[in-house]
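Q: What does the assembled structure look like for these inputs?
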Amino acid sequence: MIEAIDLRRTYRTTTGVIRRKPLEVEAVRGISFAVEQGELFGLLGPNGAGKTTTIKMLITLLLPSSGEARVLGHDVVADAREVRKRIGYVFGGDRGLYERLSALDNLRYFAELYGVSGKAQRIRIDEVLELVGLKGREQERVEGYSRGMRQRLHIARGILHDPEVVFLDEPTIGVDPVGARELRRTIADLIAGGKTVLLTTHYMFEADALCDRIAVIAKGKIVGAGTPEALKAGVAEGRVTEIEVFGVGEAAVERLRALSGVTAVAVEDRDQKQLLVVQTTADRELTAPLLAELDGVEIGRVSSREPTLEDAYVALVGSE
Amino acid sequence: MTNLKMVSTSAFFLLTSTVQPVVFATVAFYMYRTGDRAGTLLYAALGAGMMGVWSTTLFGSGGMIQWQRWQGTLELGVGSPPGMALIYLPFSLANAFTGMYALAATLVWGRLVFGVPLDFVHPWLFALALPATVISLGLMGLVLASTFILYRYANAMANLLEYPVWIASGLVFSTSLLPGWTRPISWILPPYWGVLALRHAALGGGVWVPLAMVVVLGIGSVAIATFTFRIFEHLARDRATLSLT
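A:
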């Protein structure tokens, strides 16, 4: 349904004010993957990894610098119009709606753009409003909507013309936990309804809960791919030690990374303290050496747990 | 209809469209009433009204793309199946509809405040020339809108185009006062032929030739816009200028 072959995209810009120097930024550096019919495929990666650039090339909003991509057998460059007719897409965030119009007028406008008119338009708008839980609120202006409601309206707009393939670019970004859970339910409903979905996200639990397969993307390259279980299995052999510290320096973190048996170290800031998430090989008990390397640093709670998808992600992204 | 709703829900745009023509008209009436020639005030009123139509079209076209880029709907339009010209044609016509108000407001203001006689020599031809002119200007706005797809800061260009087109089209004073080399520029501008058609219909003179030119330039604008939208959309996809970031 979706196929990317060695897809690359370079942005050209300039630096300097008087003497402008050309600058090239390689956002996507040779990405290849394929998504099967009815599959929910996740592109997982940190901010700036190239997820949105990849999705924008697939939905025909950006031209690839090189490589090929096809959606439902149509080339995204040569047959852009054919691709556009058959896909729906949703961007995360507040933007992308006509604020001063009602939700109903927004949906009517986009329905016209996609050739859904007359009686079919009324029926379809009712269906999508019901699906995203906005029935009864459709007469209100979008400017009064909460972020969660806007996001649900984005999804309604994206599937209005009943596309076979739906692209969702970080659909739950900035949405509160309850709203995000409702959105994830809506996305699961899309798959249950037979759609093929490509989802980008940097939320591990979201990818874990929704995706059939995941490609982890970092610095414009795919660094790991497979089912969530397979990715977790990649680090399942190891152990994860979490150490609460207060004011740890970069030098101490580097000493931990250099320790034999340590495969990855991530630092999460939590108000006054930090949480060190240390992944180690399973064959050695490293708690004592780890604490020894943190000599002089105030230490709080220390615990050990099973690896999660997040650990797999950190290991993959951290190795880049 | 939805396009007209989008245009008409902008309070700033509506305020500009309603107040600006009346200001132009007031200035023009004070300038021209010092002369004592018959029909001068109506001549000035039509020019001032057309200044308002052109400003509405120009800023409506530029603003429509910029506004869509800001609110993130430009990419949604580009990513939908119809061609860009087809998507933005209703927006341009909605702008033109607002522009029609500018001319009407100027004439009513002139009649009520300055006592301008609205005795048209060819009232039916005037009724025909008015929508034709306004629509033709709207279609010219479509060509301008296509360039705004490519450039993020094309609004600056819109500011540059306001006064020169007023002057080159003879909206403020007759183009016979301009150097000869500017004449071809006037000939390719729909406002030039539009105001000529309206003035001839109101004050006497040949209406059909300027009216035909208005129609020809309007159709030409659609053809050019279809081509330029295709080219500029491709370039915008290459240069990644459809979104703000």
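Residues 208-239 of chain B form the longest helix (32 residues).
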